[in-house]
Amino acid sequence: MVLTSFFCYSQNLDEYNATYPEDDVITLSLNKHISITKSKSSLSIKEIVNRKDFYLTNKRLTHATESVNYNTFNTIKNITAFTENNISDKITKSFVRDFNDEDVLVRGVFYNDQKKKSFSFPNVNKGSITHLSYEKTINDPHFLPSFLISDNVPIEKAEVSISFPNDVDVAFTTFNLENIDTNFEEIKDSDITTYKWTLKSIPKINRNYDFSPIYYIPQIIVHIKSYTINGESFPVLSNTSDLYSWYRSLIRNINNTDQSELKNKSLELIKGIESEEEKIKKIYYFVQNEINYIAFEDGLNGFIPRDAKNIYVNKYGDCKDMANLLNQMLHYAGINSYLTWIGTRKKPYSYTDVPTPITDNHMITAVKINDNYTFLDATAKYLGYGFPSPSIQGKEALIGLSETEFKIIKVPEVPASQNTSTIFSELELSNTTLIGNHKVELTGFEKLHMHHKLERKDNDDISFLESALKFGKKRTHIKDIKYKNLELADDTLLIEFSSETERYIKKIENNIYLKPHLDFNLLSEIVKNEEKDFDKKINHKYKKSFITKLNISGDYADITIPENSNFNHPYFNFKIQYKLSQDSKILEIEKHITINTLKIEVIDIEDWNHFIKALNKANKQSIVLTHL
Amino acid sequence: MKKSLLTLILVLISITASAQLYKSHDWEENQEFYELNTSELKEPSVAIKEKYLIQYYQPVLGRSFKLFETKHSIIRINTEKGIKSHNRVYIPMRNVKRVIDIKARVTQSNGDVKYLDKNNIKELENVKNYGGFKIFAIEGLTKDSQLEFIYTLENKTTSLGSIVIQKEYFVKEAVVIIRKPRALKYRVKGYNGFPNMQTEKVDGNKEALITTVTNVKGMTDESNASPSANRMKVLYQVAVGIPSDSQMWRGLENNIRSKYISIQPNKHRSLVNHYKKFAENKPKGNSEEIITNICEYITSSYNIIRTHSEELSQLKHIFKNKQATEQGIIRLYTCLLNSEQIDYELVLTSNRFNHKFDSNFFSNSNLQTALIYFIEEKKYIEPDHVNTRLNFAPWETIGNYGVFINAEGRRFKQIEAPNAKDNMIKRDYVFTLDTDNVLATVNCKQQNTGYRATSGRGAYKYFKTRDLNEFKTFTGASGIEDVDFKNFEINNEALSLSANNTPLEINYTYQAESLIDEINEDFMLNFGKVIGTQNELYQESERINPIELRSLIEYKYTFSIPIPEGYEVKGLDDTKINRNVIINNDTACKFVSDYSIENNIITINVTEGYYKLNMDLKHYEDYKSVVNAAYDFSKKSILFKKL
């Protein structure tokens, strides 16, 4: 059988090369099967994976080095890997003998339990077929693996299936299968049901996504709703209530050490404060300030906040630790606050469609004031009270109200009018040098991001403001910088500075050409080539304004100013207006740019590109001063 | 009898205890909260003290030596950035036999102290095959607090080591102590201002080499420089009857020769025959072609495994599995080179941006990179690179020295940098201006040689199957935000063409509205923009490191721009630039541009060249003006005025 199949593949090498002219390796077949069986008092779950890769050329031998991930919730068994070659019509198999266990470092996470078995297929060359098979034992029915059917090479054919006893209730949700040749079968016999999907010609992961690839790759998410053993029914994840109930069970025993130190601190912080909102702010900013975010993802501990008092004492924690500390301190202050689970914008799922732990990846705290919920993300240092963190805007928050009650509420998107950057500038020419005095006002997320940049700033970084504000030229010397209102409680961050840009103007004969727009926002934001096929991600809505006064000293026979310009679109627009004073001594320029969406959909990409081009063109306009 | 035995044991224990320096080194019971001056308070963090104890130790009852290393740091944290730099500690376990102790504490200005809970020390067992790590987060760290940690490890005994005392942050006092038993000898060498070490008595009435360095500035990460290599550090050798450097180099030479050079091809007939079959229809007229065949054979048939495997360092297994470790792949090359009787030298050197090779002090830092040098061709191959071909030495090794070893002996030799004429980017631009539609079309014929040809070929190979648009943009139109390619072709992309430095040819045509600005009825052509995004050094703070370039290189651009009918050109004089740095009557670098007009066509010629790898700090301002001239040129425009 193997001989026959190999012979076919060899015969088809030219054919595959013709079908996949851009690829050096393809996956011929990918089989994943989840088997659920019942043992005495619980479920026994394993995933069996088989994959065959075909090397169409010998230009990408590095693909032969690969790995299989595992963690606390699953273990790898019976891993086998070998390379099959046809040498002089004789089939040879070269087996992998060394599988190295390695820690997997996850970006931004200090410690996690992810590990991998890494290995390298021997004897790989053009025409080789590599075979990989292994079993993954899943220790907890809440963590059934998803079928993510995509890779960095195309997949010719994939078969994924799940089989389970008929008294186990399994549900599934599919994503992004619309453009894939897919066949679904439900095979039911007296004891076992099998769901099976067959997919053909799955393209490799595209490099041009702006949102996370998980928004695009074909996937089937399966989860166990419930099961029955010995007549007793056990709920698992049939709906959001089950998910919440399980989450709640995980946090039942937190904060069971002596919390009096924390309680005293909470009461000390709010001493003399009457207003509920002021109490919340005081505690919220305290946690933001005092506790440093360090991420841990360590098995079930990745779902259970650590003791609030210990976090307070140790001064570091991850999102759930900080949410729990904040929640606990707010309770001591008499505030109605709740632990809240949420998926950031990296996650495309909703709790209703996918009531499983893959839907969320973050924990925050919610407070209820006057029947409205406000979301507090203690990990977002410098985030003002009342603002959700940028990464959770528009996402579902699962608010844990009590042992049994919860509420799902969509986090609001912060409107552009609350995230503003305004730069007031007074400019004048001194010979060929442009001199400026500037005042910057930042609110909302614009203020937040400036705080983050300031935190990372090097003392000797003299180009800091140029890059942080996207303002000025490389030759611009920025000096006399003053920061005001750096405190979290202040709504507006103020920055004052002056600037000098030598050789700023272009002199040709009697004319001076001067470009009065010093900012370069959105300059490189044109969506190009294949990127146009995918939605563009916007981190937050905002409005940027530039109010400029150019003092024109000296006598000129003529002053030519650019025409007013604008671009109108509901989601993105700009407006530039020029006004020359009657005595031609002052030119006032007002520019407003507004981005009013978190996503530019494919249908709007062409408009977006027109918008960027129009803005770039308007930014380059020159004032022409003609000497007498 | 029993009593005397007990006494003897006590004495031994006592001797052992007093002999182990790390045991007598501890933190103060009551930690002082150190005062900082005004300028120190502006730093994100300041190390009050960093102490390194290296102790070679011989137990009285043992023959073998042990090695203990202690690191003790006291660091004041001033800002959030300081917290983020210091609140996570990673201790590599790769060479560690035993952890003696790890402890940490944080002291607040009011005297409150938080000690590390050792249960919170986590373990990573194998990170990227570099071994394990002990990691922990510092507990209780806040702004205006003082961190202190101390750990002692028993390491695998080795006779060579190094300590880098210059960090990214300011160190008020660094102390290095190297102690050893009488039976061992030591030798040390300091670099970049590390002072001489003194022999002093230390705890336990023993002798040790000691140095204290004060006020070590944090190293700044600067471009066109080698800040890592310039850090203050000390290398040391500790061994029984320490051999001379010459003896150590000889030992290395013998080792290299026996393991890599003296491979007899006739013992590996299958391998050699397999290669010969691969090469049977390929040109073999000279050694250059043969070396190319060997490179093509190995890079297309073998996979490099970046992990330790004794088996995959042996040719028999390498051939069988078509896999080799980084050491094994060298043996594969030398075996086949021997089979073809090609003369070569195996070169060991360092990445010059990390450490300058020093033939006068044997150390592992000198031996991080392996190359094979071909005397006749004056070129190299880089065995552990998946695309290696006969080529110039890798840019990170040029100008550095290396030890060159062959069957007859060894020599120290500088690895020559290819001259700028062999490492060029040449671009001929022809503009077409559509004044009705305010659109510029640019046609460019580009030729890259040297490193830029090699990197271009490698990038093309990579992006061809992934995203050719990305390749087009960074090759031909970086910084042109609205580029629209109409045509793009590439010639001479075969990797092996590096052997005779055949230019990589890239020809393309694109349009971009952003190249033209309308000003009433006139228009400005931003022609300089087509040379792409340029480095600039306008906003540099005070320069610390001398100049060290990646390579000698020359850029040659010509622009052919027709003057549209009905227009006259203005502002051309602005394109005349002449900046250079002359050192000892030689041009170290320059930027020269000029123009001419003939038959209503403007021709602008530009040469930007860098002809010295290293320049002293005193030339920095002039060098900066050359670099900035290229940046300024990229912003140049000319005015076409309506007649």
From TrEMBL, chain B:
Residues 1-19 form the signal peptide. It comes from the Bacteria. The keyword Signal applies. Keywords: Signal. The keyword Signal applies. Residues 69-217 form the DUF3857 domain. This is DUF3857 domain-containing protein. It comes from Winogradskyella litoriviva.
